[in-house]
Design a protein that fits this description.
Length: 316
Amino acid sequence: MTLRICVFIEPHRGADHDDQLRFAQRAEACGFEGFFRADHYQTMGADPGLPGPTDAWLTLAALARETSRIRLGTLVTPVTFRLPGPLALMVAQVDRMSGGRVELGLGAGWYEREHISYGIPFPAASERFDRLEEQLSVITGLWRTPVGETFSHRGNHYRLLDAPALPKPVQVPGPPIIVGGRGPKRTPELAARYADEFNMPFKSVTETARAYRRVTEASARTGRADTGRPPLVLSAGVVVAIGRTPADARRRAAPLHTESALPPEDPLIGSPSQLVDRLGEFATIGASRIHLRLTDFTDLDHLELIAGEVLPQLGT
């Protein structure tokens, strides 16, 4: 079994930049492939998440200069937060700052409360997905425009005229794009057409297998293979709380029982061997990459436990 393992954190729960830097640097030292973070501006429960939110791309830019190997990205950036032209520029710049280690997870957005709080428009779901499709087209178009040429786009929501399409990212044709989610129709289609990776977040192996079938079928319908693009990387998000003892695992799992606006999840609470078994089940259905969601940013021992007792059994 060979799986590539990344860590995923949610700083809106309460983490400043130093917390994230410490965690990312330790994850890099422990041998994890990537450090990914959520892109939210507000907590989803009663806890205010002090000292408050941090902007995802500002944070990743800083981390790009303080790390050397680990890949960096978002799971996922909502299209409601940023316009596609400036976002393409921003991600390309951070890719250059990191030496080509950035990945862009992009989604339609779903948490209305944070939009209300900060005055961000939150259109209906159908419009958000229309915007997602346009943003994917604009961002990939800007990155792939040859130097010296310009890029234009006339859509229902975004219009660009003779954009210089600079700066160029280090990665060619651009940083990997991740599209994911539980949606049964548009999400698989958009992933098949635009993404490099499809991610199913924090659901059971059975539900994840169904999502993989949908996106595989969408890839066939859209003729992805005919374009010469490689098959989608299939990844899964797994909520993790493991320990050397059952008491350690229960302690780490305590925050998972707090009431939240998050959809129902399927966490793995238990021992390192149980986590290895669960990841093996994901590998069996086609996953080649796993994003482990860890809740406590100060619990570096959790990282080290996974690195010491889980990663060596995954071929990483």
